[in-house]
Specification:
The structure is a single chain. Among the domains are: about 5-45 and about 380-649, Rossmann fold (3-Layer(aba) Sandwich); about 265-375, no CATH class. It has 12 helices and 36 strands. An 8-stranded mixed sheet has the order 29-30-32-31-33-34-35-36, sandwiched between helices. β13 (about 195-200) and β14 (about 205-215) form a beta hairpin. α2 (about 35-45) packs across α12 and α4 (about 435-440) runs parallel beside α12. It is globular. The two termini are about 35 Å apart.
Amino acid sequence: MDTFSWIEDVDHPDTLPYLEAENAYTTHVCAPLEELRQSIFTELLSRTSDTDQTAPYTIGEWKRYSTIDKDQSYWVHRREDSSTQTEVLLDENERAREHEYFQIDTLQLNPEQTHIAWLEDTQGNERFRLYIQNLSTKIIRVVEQSNIKWTLAWLDNNHIAYIRGDDADRPCSIHLYNIHTEQSVLIWHETNEHFYLTVHRSRIGNVVVCEAHSKTTSDVRLLEINEDSWVLKQIRQKEYGVKYTVEVGCKKLFIRSNKERREFAIHTQDRANNQIQHPLWSPVSGITIQDIDLFDTHLVCWIRENGLLKLQVYNLDTHSSTRVHFPDPTYEIYPDINPHFETQYFRLRYTSPIQPDIVLSCCLNTGDASCIHRFNTPNHDPTQYRCDRIWATSKDGTQVPISVVESTLHAPNIPSPVLLVGYGAYGVSYDVGFHSHWISLLNRGFRIAIAHVRGGGEMGRRWYNQGKGRHKQNSFDDFIACATHLIDVQATTADTLIISGGSAGGLLMGVCLNQRPELFGGCVAEVPFVDVTNTMLNPNLPLTVIEYEEWGNPNVAVEYNTMQAYDPYAQYTGQPYPPMLITGGLKDPRVGFWEPSKWVAKIRSFHPDSSDILLKINMTAGHSGSSGRLSMLEEDAWINAFIIHCSQV
């Protein structure tokens, strides 16, 4: 019997009053922190530029970029021609004016640059509407389809592919919309509930890559058009356990697949004959090929080695390769905009815990990278901070990497408050970039540590497989080992070790608190996935069936028993938690608002007089919290104030 199941029903007469009462209580308890919160908010504003701009790029005669000005919360997307006449393509601030929540996703122009399309979410529930504007007439049309999901791709100048979700929010069908007839046709409906669909336009043009992925298996098809007649070609027969992605060349397909090698290899396949395949690259042990980007004479390979994402550039003419090197011991890299197939340069973003985002231009022939754009981050000096990686030994002897950031003004061997962060799910790697709100903690003597636990992808596919399903306990053992290591080497003490994680990282927090509550001095759990068993038992909830391969299928006894054994909500029996700040979003389609809310209600049933368990439900947003940069800074300041408070209790 789930005593608090009534909270799951937003229409229950007691649900909204309960949430509002919890929010009011949190506001009351946090009132003494208001001066500190305001001070941190001022600091965050001081490190936020009044004006900023993205790195310009050119397509045809147009140069495109985006700007943001003082007091603006959203970007303005612009282009200018050879005479430097500037045209506003889309002002997000104007679109957001009438909405409490606003998000733009996947803004794209057609090849001739006569029409612009974008996805818009004004509820926070990730159910988008598709808008298309004629840039000559300025007329905006909305595609009258419900629950459009995240990705778009122009097939040619007149047709755009988009995706719709089913009642459980699974992206399940791809549609092709004609901007002249204003009609859509269904081109792929994926009936297997374990799979979700995505689309993207190939760099060579006039081909849309349509993908279906589960956690273990892929199915890729190419959408092409000839005189308004479209065709969808399957690359290979779907094979359970085989994951792959495809890059489209003029005559060949470049396929990254795990069929022959668990950590992926690359082979080519003739576009005219799917049966003719040629091996291209199978790396040595210890390297995972995470992704590939194809250009006319080079293949950019995103590889994982020793816990870090690296770039290896393969020359398709000479069959030689070169590495791109980065300066910091821990960092984050990801692609910038690279629209041109025929090019000798590749653009990427680089950031580290001490280095704000920069855009690098990499010479594909030499691997040399130079900075072509810096995003404005005033009042920050990277030389005042240092970052490193250390290793902890988990329960089974596995070495787990920890990224550590600290101020150079503090002695390295003296214990100080630590914010320990973790995620560890879906094979997602927690690569460590720059976070302005961390600087406010570092300047107050904190260290920041990121535990790269199993379940993530930092050490490859093996690392992911060892931290999911029946092996999920490894994620929790790894995080506990990282916390213990930081205490043992006297980087901190249990009283001043504050932990933080969101979504699946919130699950990590809940389990570790249940299993070792004495290790931690405080916790921030944002939109935490803590009601695992009940959620996975309800196939009508968004994304549940898709995630059977991640967490397990509770209709299978051994898998039910595994998740029940660590489920934070089910396994809470009155353990003495440290001070906690727990958040949720009323519109959240990924982690229902009731999960953190039920968790807090159960904690209070054991400790009714506890004043340091706080719940904050955002009543106008979803999984990602508030939209707009000023609102996000306010949330960051509030959370930082709580973290500092925990370290002083």
